[in-house]
Write a structure and sequence with these properties.
The chain is built from 7 helices and 14 strands. The chain has 267 residues and is α+β, with helices and mostly antiparallel strands. Helix 4 links the parallel strand 7 and strand 8. The longest helix is centred in the C-terminal third of the chain and has 20 residues.
Length: 267
């Protein structure tokens, strides 16, 4: 059964449809704010501390005040109201100082995903910031869908592979070695990416699109996707789920189970 949608707006818990955002707020008017999305396993927030760390970093990058202590205080009753089902938690902080905590159902994910490369020039100002200014990311997905794919993968005008709009990409080369763009690139410091790089033998670097064009297998990784095989890139069919993809899926399942068992993923 999908999770019940509930919201905490500045500490007041209501069904999401009843939550009212006072205006004016440049979080809505101009997409000026920061956010995080956190996976709930059995009602427990996975890697919550790291997500809140990143929210604070995003706030510093755009001169946005993030009241972490109050967010943590307001999160406890929201999670208690939610209960123990799987879901996702969205945390938003707006320029007007609103704290918006949302419990949302997990999106239904297909067994695999198809990608289309979309040329994109990142903004230096918002590099590595999880800003509410996500219109470009969402439009890139629409561009990819208009070309018959499920999702985009950003490449720079110079042909350097970056990331999809809401995930990280990994691929295996012809020898089976896993690769992913390094954090030297203007990409998000993904928490799921971090776990996989720690658990697996992964080469990180600055790679051009020729790497993707030759890859026999690939997968996406994110908080809500976990590890999702890629079935095609620019209409070129890949092997899925390949051996390295299955290895990554198993490794991530172990990490989540271990951290939740040890209490690291709790609120």
């Amino acid at each position: 059964m999908p999770a019940r949608e509930i919201a905490s707006l500045d500490g007041r818990i209501t069904p999401t449809r009843e939550a009212l955002l006072p205006l004016p707020d440049d979080g809505l008017y101009r997409g000026d704010g920061a956010f995080e999305v956190i996976r709930l396993y059995g009602g427990r927030a996975f890697a919550l501390g790291e997500h809140l760390d990143r929210l604070e970093r995003s706030g510093v990058a755009i001169d946005l005040a993030v009241d972490r202590a109050t967010i943590e205080h307001e999160l406890e009753p929201l999670l208690a109201t939610h209960g123990e089902s799987d879901a996702q938690l969205r945390i938003m902080v707006t320029r007007a100082g609103r704290r918006i905590l949302l419990i949302e159902p997990l999106a239904q994910r297909a067994d695999s995903v198809t990608l289309a490369t979309v040329t994109y020039q990142p903004s230096i100002i918002l590099n590595r910031v999880k800003s509410l200014s996500y219109a470009a990311n969402m439009h890139a997905t629409r561009i990819a869908q208009g070309r018959g794919a499920d999702e985009a993968v950003f490449v720079t005008p110079e042909g350097i592979v970056l990331e999809p709009p809401t995930s990280t990409i990994f691929w295996a080369d012809s020898s089976g070695r896993l690769k992913t763009p390094s954090l030297e690139n203007p990409i998000l410091d993904s928490i799921t990416r971090d776990r996989l790089v720690r658990e697996l033998d992964v080469s990180e670097g600055v790679y051009d699109t020729g790497e993707l064009e030759a890859a026999p297998e690939a997968f996406l990784a994110s908080t809500t996707r976990e590890v999702q095989p890629v079935a095609a890139i620019d209409d070129r069919v890949l092997d899925w789920p390949g051996a390295r993809t299955q290895e990554a899926q198993a490794a991530y399942e172990r990490v989540v189970a271990d951290e939740l068992r040890g209490g690291a993923g709790g609120p």
